[in-house]
Amino acid sequence: MIALIQVVRGPGIGRRIQLRGGQRATIGGTDHADYRLADDRGLEAIHFEMDCRGGECRVIARANAPMLVNGQAVQEGRIMTGDTITVSRTTFAVTVEGAVETQHDEASEDLAAEATQIAAAMTMVDLCGHLDLDDDVTPIALRHEDVEPLIAELTETEMYFPALRLRANTLPRIHAVWWACVCVRNLESKLSMKTLDLAALEAAEHWVKDPSDETRRAAEAASEAAGGGAAGLIAYAAFTSGGGIGHPDVDPVEPDERLCGALVAGALMVAGYCDPPNVHSVMSEMLANGKEPWTQQFALPSCVAPS
Asked: Which residues form the domain of 221?
């Protein structure tokens, strides 16, 4: 079984969360959740949980805040293809493949059709506009209804930076940083990184394994020491992943929600050109490696993958 919920309305439009049978994950507004949607300030630290065990997928409210399934407030319930989940300003469209089926009544079929219409209205053009991608991406985005074929065409036409931006900004930030770390490690012999670069990369990796404010601030310091190379940009992406980016003793300054993804994309652009004659194959491999499921791709630390 595979369960996918995709943001079709709200500040995080385009974000996707995917679980397989036997997995469960929490969704909320802070790093306490397995999947963090920091773009929606109205979310609780852990707002709800998806549980895809036992042949079906269920959602469970984990906060004293509303959770709507198909417009109805629920504390717990089964979700199926065509359903919608709304929390705060965010609405997800649901797709579940391979679940034990039950018969939908006429009302649920109407709701499924409505959810499909909502999802269709949130186009790839909307997502590209949200990320402020160049105008020349728009004609390509118009041809696609999903981010994966859009990334594939952008890669094939050598429009690497918008492809990387889309990949990085449609992943949970902790996964985006880890993806960048692994890609740069794979190219380490060609990048000729210095001691400070390696220290910055290690700081980002440390944050992934222990996403605390202490490790986030340590990544900032390592980034400043390393400068603007690929490793330094990845460390700074970890720093901008959440929480204030000003001095810790003053009122917090929240980063732009797109900044972490832009830094990850910038880091991988730098890394991808380490071997100019083979840049297309390097970029293509990096972008392909950004796909889920994470546990199969990169053997993530257990704290990163949903339990």
From this structure: 138-297
